[in-house]
Amino acid sequence: MGRKFFVGGNWKCNGTTEEVKKIVETLNAGQVPSPDVVEVVVSPPFVFLPVVKSSLRPDFHVAAQNCWVKKGGAYTGEVSAEMLVNLDIPWVILGHSERRALLGESNEFVGEKVAYALSKGLKVIACIGETLEQREAGSTVDVVATQTKAIAERISDWTNVVLAYEPVWAIGTGKVATPAQAQEVHAELRKWLHANVSPEVAASTRIIYGGSVSGANCKELAANPDVDGFLVGGASLKPEFIDIIKSAEVKKSA
Ligand SMILES: O=C(CO)COP(=O)(O)O
Asked: What ipTM describes this predicted complex?
């Protein structure tokens, strides 16, 4: 199958110049498996992207946390995909639940953003996930399938897409999905890709988990066959992010 383990660190709207410097120093000093085993991408706020990119170890890469849905222009406060390409930022996170919920980004809007970013040559971490109400109503699989469909309808090449399953109820709550819950949804997503995109895309697309991932729970989650890595929030600001990266070793020995 050859899905390389992927660990993303989403710093969200956190950090001062000093804090960013410290985080980068910690990352640069960390002993982690080789880039053949794990792909590591950290995502600072826009304003810190250049400094992080220039000071970060070369085996780790950077991602923006968002970009505009189409070509730049008169869109005050937005940052375009073209600008990220111009700055050599390889990755962008799109469709994070915080943006969906707080800024009203719809499935369609996220799908359009993913398509536009890919068309400009960016690699995309596309986020999906259900709320607690949706889970309790038994609609988890429907919700994530609908979110994935809005992306799938607008793109033809999945090579540069990582799908991040982030149940909203697990984000920033300390309430991590159990390994079985994560595996179940990831397997359903892979089944959906198999049926609706292609068996090849289903086999090769990385599906990563996000929501209260920590140094303490990462190994158990990583041991599941359809969990191809993590998108880490709070713990990506701390030294334990290195331990989370190391959980890639679980796959090597699997
Ligand atoms: O939203 C997340 C990553 O994008 C997860 O955040 P936490 O790891 O802080 O729960």
From this structure: 0.99
